[in-house]
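Thought: the user wants the 3D structure for the chain below. I'll pass the sequence to the structure tool as-is, report back what it returns, then summarize two notable features.
Action: structure_tool
Action Input:
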Amino acid sequence: MLSPELLYALRNLPLAAKQAAEGFLHGQHASRRHGVGMEFSQYRPYQPGDDLRRLDWRLAARSDRYYLRESEVDTSLTVHLLLDASASMNHRDDNGLSKLDYARLLVAALAYLATQQGDAVGLTVLHPAGLRHLPPRADARQLPRLYHALETAEATGTFPDAGTLAPLTARRQRALTVCVSDLYEENSEIENLLTRLRATSGDVLLLHLMAKNELHFTFRGPVTFEDLETGQRLQLDADQQRASWQEQLQAWLSTTAQQARRHGFDYHQLNTADPLDRAMREFLRRRALS
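Observation:
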């Protein structure tokens, strides 16, 4: 797997997403390439915009017509990607990537992977100025739309309030919701949103994004920390506070994971220094169960 730094260095989100997803799929068993747990259901005629890799060439040779192989999962699954674009996602790791940089790569790779599985994919970028929402679609033009929304997303302000988020849960639509967030919130806004989506849409895969320098507290000596969402500052000696920081962080992470699973979310913690393969593996696993 390519490291997130190398993917980011491409400065080309569509290419980075393809490289990450194809590299991951190449390492999987050949039978998984067309979707974990998918069983053949039927053929349907080819339509402009369909993925040519799903054509049954043998049948075309025999009948002189073009048909695609479909599966039950292919025709029924909707994937709704949620990206937290609050200001805390601007936190930068020691590898030079911000959480938002990593999240863009990850969400783009998941969108590519879902599209290759035949899913209808949608995206909502969550920020206080309002939601940027692309409804789920399975057509060939959806990926460029998603990539553009991700490339132009900026992390600002605090997580959106309940009023801003209300349209997301106004309609009941069966979907696999995938949320990428650092879960920094004031009044359980993220937890409340995902709880409502769990009730209205079904399965929720929560990918909790943490920077390596947060997890391992790699800071040294006197340090000034600034809350990216409130502007508050805190001065401390990193060497003296390391043990206390890590103790409190582990307690918070443990509580966060327990609460997420108690609400029925499929919760996984990610590190911005790690390749994207674990998240893609968890996505395919959750997808197979949906």
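Final Answer: Structure generated. The chain has two domains: 34-73, 77-289. The two ends are 26 Å apart (CA to CA).
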